[in-house]
Amino acid sequence: MRILIINPPDRNKVIENPDEKGEEFLEADSFGDFPPLGALYVLSHLEARTTGHQLFFKDCVAERIGYPELKAYIEEIRPDVAGITSFTVCLMDVVLTARLIREVVPHVHLCLGGHHPIAYPKEAAELPEFDSVVVGEGEEVFTQLVDCLEKGEDFTHIKGVYTSETIKHHLNNPVRDKRFLARVNVPAAYVDDLESLPRVNRKYIRQYRYHNIIGSTDDLATILSSRGCPYLCTFCDVPIKSYRERSPASVCDEIEECLAMGYKEFRFYDDLFNINEKKVLAFCDELDRRKLKITWDFRGRVNTVSRASLVRAKASGLRMISFGVETGSDEGLKILKKATTTEKVRNAFMWCRELGILTVADFIIGQPFEKTPADVRRNIEFLMELDPDYAQVSVLKLYPNTEMYENAVRQGVIAAGRWQDFAKAPSKDFIVDHWNEFMDLATLVNLQKWSYRRFYFRPRYILRSVIQTGSLYQFMSKAKGAIKLIKTNMRMAG
Fold it and tell me: Most C-beta atoms within 10 A of its C-beta, which of 261, 361, 483, 494?
């Protein structure tokens, strides 16, 4: 069979933080392009476990293509099975892609996977555009699905694969699997042993140039060394709470494959890379044992770093860490269930600065405990005190299946059911919910813009940034960011 895995275009992505003119200050592509690793894992598993199929992978976002180009591609390959990866905020494009494929190839089997069916199992299964959905981790079950389709056999026995009919039984008999967030109330596909999965085959994406806007090159490889996050931050909708690791040997095998393909930079895209000091040290030991000289970075937590592990990681090529700080007070950190303190935050950034490790501080404004613009500004002053190399300031978005969302519904800040309605009938006009009890969205977006100006337009910061620029790519990335901020200021002044 001819099997296509596709990352749809992003032409109709929901605008998450519109300003007073309906424009979004920072779009998703402002931070770079990253490969859809989950979808690539699914295709790589199918390739390794079956034979005789013709396999295709299309990343419309990386190629910057729209529907006319996609239609021509579908007409060329005419798949028998198409798996579409998804996020809820991109659901309109997911549905439009499915309709286009069905128009060109009426008898194609369309399967929906990715994050959206985990967040909305019922609504996803009931979308009329799809023949099946995968709830959970799709590698093993999608391969089983393809095997059944090839043999003309029933596939409804596969755990985690549903149709609009088969999911009804589970809706009447909901389950609670503590490995997932509470909204996943149907039996979901799950991979116990990550070592059992084939490594992703990057031949399907090597023609694309992925990059991180604050990276060192324009040729980035992302790697997952683990899955899941056991923490319970009140705003986070990471769907899988159980934490599973790959061995350092397996991760370094993948790095060596990437080096052989010419990749120059590595970003660990784990929900949580530094679960503890032991993991970081073991990975560095394996890098050094193999004499691998790479540049790498990760997303991590301040409460699980130590100075000793940072010293070790820096010596093994660590360039940068993105820390989820979120807010600048111990009270706020406690409310968000961040399991850390401002003292630990300060220590982590101080150690990184001393060791020459670049830092990114992620902050969220518009929290329920920020009742006035002055509260937000005090939060940002903590960011200024930390003085990281980069800052990302987001307006709080209320995503379902989080404690923050449930609190907002319970207190009457937002209406219940809006996301479910959107999941049933996606529309470009949908606006993501925010905590607007004390400040409206326009005020929060203006405070977001102010925060970026406050941080990035300091003469001392500009000088330091220029000194740190080590390549033409970094210069162009920083110039692009500066131009965007300047244009935003002009738009506000107008």
Answer: 361
